[in-house]
Amino acid sequence: MKRHQFSAYSWQEVEEMDRASTTILIPLGSTEQEGTHLPLGVDTFVAESLANEVANNTGALVGPVLPLGYSEWFLEFSGTISLKLETLTQVLREYTLCLIHHGFRKLIFINGHAGNSTAVDVVARECTMSQSARIAMVEIWKIANSLAKDIPDLKENAFKHAGEIMTSVMLYLHPDMVSMDRARVEYVKSGQAPFKAKSSLGLADFKGVEIKVYEGTKTLTESGIMGDPLSATAQKGELIFNALKSYLIEMVTHF
Amino acid sequence: MKRHQFSAYSWQEVEEMDRASTTILIPLGSTEQEGTHLPLGVDTFVAESLANEVANNTGALVGPVLPLGYSEWFLEFSGTISLKLETLTQVLREYTLCLIHHGFRKLIFINGHAGNSTAVDVVARECTMSQSARIAMVEIWKIANSLAKDIPDLKENAFKHAGEIMTSVMLYLHPDMVSMDRARVEYVKSGQAPFKAKSSLGLADFKGVEIKVYEGTKTLTESGIMGDPLSATAQKGELIFNALKSYLIEMVTHF
Amino acid sequence: MKRHQFSAYSWQEVEEMDRASTTILIPLGSTEQEGTHLPLGVDTFVAESLANEVANNTGALVGPVLPLGYSEWFLEFSGTISLKLETLTQVLREYTLCLIHHGFRKLIFINGHAGNSTAVDVVARECTMSQSARIAMVEIWKIANSLAKDIPDLKENAFKHAGEIMTSVMLYLHPDMVSMDRARVEYVKSGQAPFKAKSSLGLADFKGVEIKVYEGTKTLTESGIMGDPLSATAQKGELIFNALKSYLIEMVTHF
Amino acid sequence: MKRHQFSAYSWQEVEEMDRASTTILIPLGSTEQEGTHLPLGVDTFVAESLANEVANNTGALVGPVLPLGYSEWFLEFSGTISLKLETLTQVLREYTLCLIHHGFRKLIFINGHAGNSTAVDVVARECTMSQSARIAMVEIWKIANSLAKDIPDLKENAFKHAGEIMTSVMLYLHPDMVSMDRARVEYVKSGQAPFKAKSSLGLADFKGVEIKVYEGTKTLTESGIMGDPLSATAQKGELIFNALKSYLIEMVTHF
Amino acid sequence: MKRHQFSAYSWQEVEEMDRASTTILIPLGSTEQEGTHLPLGVDTFVAESLANEVANNTGALVGPVLPLGYSEWFLEFSGTISLKLETLTQVLREYTLCLIHHGFRKLIFINGHAGNSTAVDVVARECTMSQSARIAMVEIWKIANSLAKDIPDLKENAFKHAGEIMTSVMLYLHPDMVSMDRARVEYVKSGQAPFKAKSSLGLADFKGVEIKVYEGTKTLTESGIMGDPLSATAQKGELIFNALKSYLIEMVTHF
Amino acid sequence: MKRHQFSAYSWQEVEEMDRASTTILIPLGSTEQEGTHLPLGVDTFVAESLANEVANNTGALVGPVLPLGYSEWFLEFSGTISLKLETLTQVLREYTLCLIHHGFRKLIFINGHAGNSTAVDVVARECTMSQSARIAMVEIWKIANSLAKDIPDLKENAFKHAGEIMTSVMLYLHPDMVSMDRARVEYVKSGQAPFKAKSSLGLADFKGVEIKVYEGTKTLTESGIMGDPLSATAQKGELIFNALKSYLIEMVTHF
User: Fold this and answer.
1) Among C156, C132, C136, C128, which Cα is nearest to C255's?
2) Number of H helices, E strands in chain A
3) Which residues contact F56 (CB under 8 A, 6 or more apart)?
């Protein structure tokens, strides 16, 4: 554990920092189903690993990681632990206001879970309006999705829940937590025709246009997987992780 | 006012309905800045007009319209009236649970304002898990964005806040409320280079990848416009509105 | 739709207004049982119609109408959609504070539903104490009750839920939504003697004195009617509506 | 202290009671300005005294008294301690649900303060709908107002805050807490003509009809008195208190 | 009732006080099981009696007593009325802020129930940080526990729920509410060996070290008693009460 | 990272577990001042390390760690990040209910921060009453305090914030995060005589008896230290940590 962690410093050392110019990275994760082959903590592990790497290379500090997010629609799958969106929002509000109270002005949420994004939005907008803070959020899988086009040999050209990209990154970072023998290819099942479910978040296609039709997640995917993890490799994972890392280092450097 | 309105029926008539098979359309609007030339109620007006047309053509009923949404980031502009996201969520939760309590099982939110979407998500997921309801949401401007590619002569190939699509629809529906002499072309200003703001919701581009950098809205757009309303016409508006209407009629029919 | 609607103006037009001297009328309705012959939206429709007329004659503006109120005791009747009183209070608090934030100082709630009154009270008292706003509320059926004594030929000398006054006003404003063939005379049944129920709000008479004894509404009235709608006519409705309108125009003019 | 107090019994004695047929009286008071000559606790003292007398004569039990109510509009006067209406509602909700949990089915709120009434309404309606409880509320000053017409020599024919009725009752019950040398006649001042304030709750007269115009309380009454306490006597107080007591004993007996 | 009660003063008298130097004592009680022989209100009665005595001897004033506390774990015993901890906290927050709003700066909570302590802590810390108030709390049974060592002939050298100390104090203050024929010796039963329950609050002993193991209270004590009330006497109660009183008088005098 | 982490398992593996007999350890930390020489995350680091060791030796699983606690009174010291107690309680409520929802019945909170204890109490009591769960909490510094008497050469015979015990444990676990050159001996200053502050939680001594007098923390300790860290050594830390570990292993084994 190196000294890029915010909580590795004493209050006095924090007081001595140039707080207004020190960027705090806030990793947000989740504890939710990530397919039969990946551990519940994928979002947390990857957000934390990325934040640590970025901090090591930029002088930013990594704030305490939140391992619980808003994942209510996955409660049908064993092990998912979800906060209500209202609760998560309040936690982030208090977290952010404390940092601002201490003089920090540059906060970047390193968000490993799409379900958390609105809570960040709400808090960031409030603080931007009423405080002199500068806040950003990077949604790591969404960025991975953008960067994937430059990764050679990726079969999936877009990020899928528990699919090739996520599985590859985990094979690179935490192979001991991946059970490839439990992996299989599964895509979100079409719900009730003619509505074609696109994700577990409610996204659905009707005549080529995206709308939302909410369905119980287990009716959409039996395994929790919504892509093809079988083509994942640690090598691809390394490329993706490094691409994310480079991107974030540059982003943080310019923030 | 025709009898497609839910609240145009007496309680006894509601009781006599085949409630389990009657679809309720719930129009969600906002009261927020929509550029210098468009009225604050655009989202509400269009959501309500569409819902009415769709109901007239499908047998669905239009529930009471909510004219206040979550638009907190526009409070810098005079006239914006915003609910907190938590408050909006609670309103939608109680609205939805009452309908389900009365035996309705098919609810579609006709959402005129992107800021409301998460509140619908939260409530729809809760009800889908704990109740036997079937819930959908259509985000009208997002659909307009998809349908725009088939509209001839549109200059903007994507929906922009207070831009060509929105202005055209309003010129068609409510020309008396549009002040074209106050319209002008304005795009979201780049915030702090190298971050390039893409919308007032925090979206920003950094090296071709989308992240979020939250900024006060007035620093992004002076007029509130984020597109080109000058090329808008009522004719284009009619085409767009009718495309939306046809799409929604078909969607509701299949729901 | 004329330009007496607040949301028919652009943010720039709002900014150009003399906001401190512009009165905003806020119509509050409900979606609740109004007897077997009247539609669920009576309170909303009448509040909105009155507000529009008053605005047209005074220069006041009509804010977005809230069609959901606090009507929890009517949930036994199909179609009633009620907010919790706490939720309604929070909605009104945010609505009001936004208007005050933008510089408006004169707000009048045009309240079509008695159940909403406490929520207005709470918010108005808070704002009166902590802000320089001037707030009023008119409860339209209570005023109708006062004005009724001057309307010739009215059989009911006091306002009754779904009775002569309300039915007459609806016959005048929205005859298409009134089903006189479903109307009948019904009065609140005496609950458990010697307590004599007086209304669905809990009011009861014991030995000539008013107390409250709460009972399920369906035990009090089978039809939801608590008066005599059979003597209602559109002509009476016109007189009542015009009396209300004149009164409110004068009231708003002096505010 | 006699054994009419609920909290004077042990849990075992409560368990041995015929709880379904035992009525619990719940005294609600306030701590608020009651004029220059009356103590802050008037509402609490009178509600508690009445509840005790009624319990002594009926076998009902007096639950714990709540000495704080919703009196926010009096915070301008020193010593007023007010709960938010939402907080009071939650307190009453939990109080009531605990009693129902233990098998009590007959609850009567002995309410000494009009500001508390809506909180009781909300809770009573919820419990009436979802639980098999029977709930009533008596608003003691409103009843005093009704009974006053039968009290000889009363100068005020209607209850006034800190006026003849309230002062008389306090001269009878707690003469040591009344400072008649600080009493004076004061009526609610007309606010801004032509609106004529009628009470500190916002009630106002406009052209003979009652509406609400909210004003800071100190602008309405300098002393907090809104009637004529000078004609108060302990003898009148005794008559009023006994009339209240007799009425409530009869009411509780029939409940 | 003497004039040591805060609510025995008029608002004007409060205004004339030297509020910054007047200490307000706030008695906090509970309504909860206190064994088979003691009444539900013990904590309230004792807190109030002590506060009154202390006020009489120091010039401090006694604020309105709160007879409901946080006692949720006793709801299995008939008659217990508990607020949620969150609700109690909010009540105390509003109570305290009102007093501070009126200029009081010295507040001492006379707390008769351990379950209330955290709510006081939370509010006191908030006010200490953001307001210029000085706040203290005395937990009366904890103090009794400390003072007990100096009371001759006490069999229990430590305070026990419904044991010798509490019973003695009640025999002294309210013998009419004590049913010694229902008293018996009972100690908290060992839950599941090797965990040895120490109190109803969850405290448990494992290998001589205190941890918490939460169990339903009725599995810990059948009677609700957790000590030896049989050795209680009014004489011991008088000694304990007077020791508490002397201690608190001195404490308040120095505050 | 080994497989003692709850979130290292996939949802399917969780489903295959014997959930009713698997104990979940929930580490609770804080981010707060811990003196000039210790990092903000001490409570989190130690709770997590202990939970990991215990899990490794017992088959229990370690749930996601919460690194933010209730530390509001330390906000005067730079870097402290505190949740409101109400927020923390809600987080723990949702966390716990999700685990129970999935069939886990044995939960032990490994609590590194005393300020969190009431939140655990509240949730554990709720769940014990309404669910068939078995919940325990170990407060690690309180246990360390008990075990300290058996550690040779300890100068402090009781746990002190940032004192010998805590510093020793950190010197053993994370020497790189300890700045002994910033350590100094400081004890909680006596606040206002004759009240003698005993801790930053409000504890104070008056005449040998413990009461609470709340004071701003910086008036009590300049450095945040409230003991003697100078005598701390890694060897003592190892002994203490191992004693804690052995104790907890045994406790968990018997749960």
Assistant:
1) C136
2) 8, 7
3) F2, F4
Whether D62 and D4 have beta carbons less than 8 Å apart is answered as yes
D3 pLDDT band (50/70/90 cuts)? confident
pLDDT in tens, D16-34: 999 999 999 999 999 999 9
Rounded Cα distance, C95 and C24, in Å = 12
Residue A205: the pLDDT is: 95
| Average confidence score pLDDT of chain E | 95
Q: How far apart are CA A125 and CA A108, in angstroms?
A: 13
Q: How does residue A78 score in pLDDT terms, banded at 50, 70 and 90?
A: very high
Handedness of CA F96, F99, F105, F107 (dihedral sign): negative
Supply F80's token pair: 């402290």
**Separation of alpha carbons A212 and E23, rounded Å:** 60
User: What is the distance between the alpha carbons of residues C156 and C186, in angstroms, rounded to a whole number?
Assistant: 13
Residue with tokens 């007023």: D80
Q: Which residues of E touch D90 (CB under 8 A)?
A: 84, 87, 90
Burial code of C93-114, b = ≥16 C-beta within 10 A, e = fewer? bbbbbbbbebebbbbbbbbbbb
| Cα–Cα distance, B220 to F124 (Å, whole number) | 49
Q: Which residues of F touch E247 (CB under 8 A)?
A: 207, 209
Query: Across all residues in chain F, what is the average pLDDT?
Result: 95
For residues B2-31, give the mean pLDDT: 95
Q: How many CB atoms lie within 10 A of CB D211?
A: 23
CA-nearest of E115, E45, E47, E41 to E80 is E41
Tell me which DSSP letter residue A59 carries: S
Q: Select the residue from A121, A139, A192 to test the B interface by mutation, using most B Cβ atoms within 10 A.
A: A121
Q: How far apart are CA E132 and CA E129, in angstroms?
A: 8
Backbone angles phi, psi at E68, to 5 degrees: -115, 130
Beta-strand pair A106-111/A196-197: unpaired
A184 CB-near residues (< 8 Å, 6+ apart): A36, A223, A225, A229, A230
Cα distances (Å, whole numbers) of residue C242 to C56, C234, D205: 14, 12, 20
Q: Which residues in chain F have Cβ-Cβ distances shorter than 8 Å to A5?
A: 39, 41
Burial of F170 (0-12, 13-18, 19+ CB in 10 A): buried
Q: Helix, strand or coil for residue F154?
A: coil
pLDDT tens by residue, B174-231: 999 999 999 999 999 877 889 999 999 999 999 999 999 999 999 999 999 999 999 9
CA–CA distance, B108 with B120 (Å, rounded to integer): 10
Rounded to two decimals, the ipTM of the complex is 0.96
Burial class (CB in 10 A: 0-12, 13-18, 19+), D199: middle
Q: Position C243: which residue type?
A: A
Cβ within 8 Å, pair E75-D98: yes
